[in-house]
Specification:
The chain contains 22 helices and 13 strands. By secondary structure, it is of the alpha/beta class. The strands form three sheets. The chain has a six-stranded mixed sheet, sandwiched between helices.
Length: about 650
């Protein structure tokens, strides 16, 4: 059940809001279409419901707003445009990442790929998918958590008629199993074909809320489409005959008709029939290339001032399929009752929008897809509900953000390239420093010349951290959960842990690669032992982990990878010189003896060897770089807390 109550967007300067006091509902077991022309406010309404835009009103999903849903991926599946994933990530890798975010088994990715017919393209990169394949993958991502509700923004836009018919069959099958489906569409014929209920909006306001049959009778009317090299002459003859013949003489021909010229050789005739038009063309010897019945879209109806007075029907009393009369005979006993999914590129053998011969006065909405009449063999595999549903699982535990981040990092080619480049640059600089022989060994092992304010490995670690959150906003795979997940503390902790681990691995790799390369190129004597290796190791690892964490926090606060990297660069460029001015001033007192005094005053006496570790940490903290990094992290944590608090107040 979806309930949208009083949705109102933010004012757009002097223009009215894109959505204004919109109220409707989508009941389970039905396909509800949010219909309207381009720029009518359909997408904005969905974004307001998903808390992706600021505004007023509330959207309830089974009685709860989105920020109260424990795991939105298990409650609703969303398709907003193309697949929001990194172009270099594979289809299987993208779905496995989302399965970890939803707290479902990893093999769920293969199940939904098979469901949408993309098993053979599981290793295809997202940037290489066609339009129709991208729509199938988007639907697979929406179904990854076996949600109760589907929200799709014009999912059939720009796809072939074959793909569109397949999608309509899947949505009807999903609703037949009790799911609530809300789809936006600008086509009145498509809305009447797939919907059980149609909510029409114009300029962001409610126009009508109707059953599909009522919508079709008010918005669609039959017409005859004629294609002929003598279309203009035929149009004149049809108009003349309709004006000469009295209605009582021949009702099929005598009623007033309307002829609309659509192109040079194509006309549309309203108020007549194929038989009447064909007889006129035959009597006058006019060649006809096409003669077919279609339905045409009328002008929008007058908008209502408010959305009050609607009588929602019970869930179990579904209206008849659009275009089918209530007196239509029941299907034969051997016809399967449940909706089955056709193979990729095919359509169902029982289209929901096609009507047989109906009684007089009943409007028939035929399918216009050219492949809709293809007969398919009965599918005998696992039923739709069994192939779609997953076993009942408990709520995801505290490790699901960590699983998600690990899979996201493992499939991120940009982060891997950044780590490799920083490692190679550090290696080249280390060899140059070792060749001169006058640089300290700590500078050689870290690849950090004195001319650089920061080592390349630190910048690489900062970029890894910035990518961790920056790509969540550039490729918003978790867009429907933006109100609860990207700023959730669990996901932040997971990103800090994973980025810190990556920075640690990068730092150790740089130390090992620089030492091994220097010994191999210049001989074993080129690398001397470091006297205070604990200070070097602790400082080096602390610097890289601090840069990674600074990138994560800054990218989260500013919602950008570039701003996250800029915050890391600001540490050596701005913060370190500021700290150096303070440290350079002579101090009247020092911290000598502080570890011993701490050990004596502590309630639990620790071994005396820990004093050396405390001394190392104090030395690192008093260094300009260490102090600058600590100061920067403190400021970013405060900015993150302020941003999170501000987002909750909206």
């Amino acid at each position: 059940m979806i309930q949208a109550i009083g949705l109102t967007g933010e004012p757009r300067g002097e223009l009215p809001p894109a959505v204004d006091d919109l109220t409707f509902e989508a009941r389970p077991g039905r396909v509800t279409v949010l219909h309207g022309a381009a720029a009518a406010g359909k997408t904005t309404a969905l974004r307001l419901m998903l808390q992706l835009e600021y505004g007023r009103g509330v959207a309830l999903f089974r009685g709860r707003p989105l920020h109260r849903v424990p795991n939105p991926a298990r409650e609703l599946g969303v398709v907003l445009g193309d697949v929001p994933g990194h172009p270099s990530r594979t289809a299987r890798g993208h779905l496995r990442m989302l399965s970890a975010a939803a707290g479902v088994p990893a093999d769920r990715a293969d199940d939904v790929l098979d469901l949408v017919g993309l098993s053979g393209l599981a290793d295809q990169r997202l940037g290489e998918l066609s339009r129709g394949t991208d729509r199938r993958l988007a639907l697979a991502a929406a179904l990854i958590g076996d949600p109760h509700t589907l929200l799709l923004d014009e999912p059939a836009e720009g796809v072939s008629p074959r793909e569109r018919a397949w999608l309509h069959g899947l949505l009807r099958g999903y609703a037949a199993q009790g799911g609530a489906v809300l789809v936006t569409s600008r086509s009145a014929k498509e809305a009447a074909r797939i919907a059980d209920r149609v909510v029409t909006i114009e300029d962001g306001r409610l126009v009508a809320d109707q059953d599909a049959a009522e919508f079709a009778s008010t918005r669609l009317r039959p017409r005859v489409v004629v294609r002929s090299p003598h279309a203009d002459r035929l149009a004149s003859l049809l108009v003349d005959e309709s004006q000469r013949v009295h209605p009582a003489t021949d009702p099929a021909v005598g009623r007033t008709i309307e002829v609309v010229r659509e192109s040079g050789s194509r006309i549309a005739v309203y108020g007549s029939s194929c038989a009447a038009v064909g007889e006129t063309a035959f009597r006058h010897g006019i060649l006809v290339h096409q003669l077919a019945d279609e339905v045409g879209d009328t002008a929008p109806v007058t908008p209502l001032h408010r959305a009050d007075g609607r009588r929602p029907g019970p869930v179990d009393e579904l209206p008849p399929a659009p275009g089918i009369s209530p007196t239509t005979p029941e299907p034969a006993p051997d016809t399967p009752a449940e909706t089955s999914l056709a193979p990729p590129g095919a359509v169902s053998s029982t289209p929901t929008g096609a009507g047989a011969d109906t009684p007089s006065g009943t409007l028939t909405v035929p399918l216009v897809d050219p492949m809709a009449s293809v007969a398919l063999p009965t599918r005998t595999s696992t039923p739709f509900v069994e192939r779609l549903a997953i076993p009942c699982l408990p709520a995801p535990g505290p490790t699901w953000p960590l699983r998600y981040e690990l899979r996201r990092t493992a499939t991120d080619r940009t982060g891997l390239a950044a780590a490799v480049v920083s490692l190679l640059v550090s290696l080249v600089l280390a060899l140059l420093l070792a060749r001169h022989g006058d640089a300290p060994m700590s500078r050689v092992l870290t690849g950090w010349p004195r001319q650089l304010p920061f080592p390349p490995a630190a910048l690489g670690a900062g970029l890894l951290g910035a990518l961790a959150f920056g790509q969540e906003f550039r490729y918003p795979a978790l867009a429907p959960e933006v109100g609860t997940v990207p700023r959730r503390l669990g996901l932040l902790v997971a990103k800090l842990l994973v980025s810190g681990g990556c920075a640690l691995a990068l730092g150790l790799s740089v130390l090992a690669a620089d030492e091994v390369s220097a010994r191999f190129v210049f001989g074993p004597d080129s690398v001397n032992s470091v006297a205070e290796w604990p200070v070097l190791a602790a400082g080096w690892i602390g610097l890289l982990v601090g840069c990674a964490w600074a990138g994560v926090l800054a990218a989260c606060v500013f919602r950008s990878t570039s701003m996250g990297l800029a915050a890391v660069l600001a540490v050596p460029v701005l913060v370190v010189p500021l700290v150096q001015r303070v440290v350079a001033e002579p101090a009247a007192r020092s911290l000598a003896g502080l570890p011993g005094r701490m050990r004596v005053s502590a309630p639990v006496q620790w071994p005396s060897g820990i004093d050396h570790g405390v001394s190392v940490l104090l030395r690192l903290a008093t260094q300009p770089v260490g102090s600058a990094m600590a100061l920067s992290l403190t400021a970013l944590i405060c900015a993150y807390a302020f941003t999170m608090r501000r987002s909750r107040t909206h």
